[in-house]
């Protein structure tokens, strides 16, 4: 299983048993994981893992609620494969500032919604890529702290949080109090694409959620994510997801 959680301020989970191994990847906010009594502070870039026998407590900060992806895995080789990539049960690692896995997680979520006969194979391949990237990051040499990375993360969190209301690079730059060229430089360095492209991806992923889980009409979804022209919205949606929004609606209806 895989998913994304934008936690409420009162998010609090306690499990004494869980039928899966789990990997969780924090992309925003703050919180705390207590795994078999070990306290692990959570912030953007932290990965942590727990297993079926782990006593797990997860809490979100009230002031800065967590946003995180998760994978729930089962199988005889899962524990060994996780340890090989540096994810020990009950422990956390902090990815270096050049490593961001969110698009791989988003790809798994998108592929998992498809009904084609290759969807499972593609998801397993993406899982292997995620584990390899975690291993590469874990084994890489420590890098010097980069003071601009925290500012970049705050900028990215702003886009994640305000994607529905943001519509331009200028609005993004104004939101974090820097000039547009600085925002572009951050995204080229740490994300590998421009800030507006990142905003567009966030809008289209929100649009997919509306189509899949709320059954909203395509035109209304376009309005929600800031597109007055439904044809422009459809082109952007297809460019991100590979299918037009009307096809995404058919997935929800089970066609």
Question: What is this structure's SSE topology?
Answer:
Layout: E1 2-6, E2 12-15, E3 21-28, E4 31-35, E5 38-42, E6 46-50, E7 56-60, E8 67-73, H1 78-84, E9 92-94, H2 102-112, H3 119-139, H4 147-162, H5 169-176, H6 180-190, H7 195-213, H8 218-224, H9 230-241, H10 245-253
Antiparallel strand pairs: 1-8, 2-7, 3-6, 3-8, 4-5, 4-7, 6-9
Explain this structure to me?
This protein is an alpha+beta fold and 255 residues long. The protein folds into 2 domains: 138 residues, Regulatory protein AraC (Jelly Rolls, Sandwich); 95 residues, Arc Repressor Mutant, subunit A (Orthogonal Bundle). The chain contains 10 helices and 9 strands. The strands form 2 sheets. Strands 1-8-3-6-9 form a 5-stranded antiparallel β-sheet, with helices on one face. Helix 7 crosses helix 9 and helix 7 packs parallel to helix 10.
Please supply descriptive tags for the structure shown above.
single chain; 255 residues; alpha+beta; Arc Repressor Mutant, subunit A; 2 domains; 4-stranded antiparallel beta sheet
Domains (count) = 2
* Beta-strand segment tally: 9
Q: What is the helix/strand order?
A: EEEEEEEEHEHHHHHHHHH
Categorize the overall geometry.
globular
What structural class do you assign from the helix and strand content? Answer: alpha+beta
CATH fold call of the largest domain: Jelly Rolls
Portion in strands: 15-25%
CATH architecture heading of the largest domain = Sandwich
Helix content: 40-55%
Tally of individual helices:
10
Low-confidence regions = 141-145
Biggest β-sheet: count, sense, barrel? 5 strands, antiparallel
Nearest-integer average pLDDT: 85
